[in-house]
Amino acid sequence: MVVVEIVVVVVVVVVVVVVVVVVVVVVVVVVVVVVVVVVVVVVVVVVVVVVD
Fold it and tell me: Is this structure's pTM higher than 0.85?
């Protein structure tokens, strides 16, 4: 019984760690996309203002 409980605890911990890692990766990707979009918008605005 103790072995089964240990295995269950290990599996739960691994699942939680994987979920946390996936959430962190998704957040990082979203932040990078937002930063890229902001930079592109700023560059486009600057180019339009300079060309105008």
Answer: no
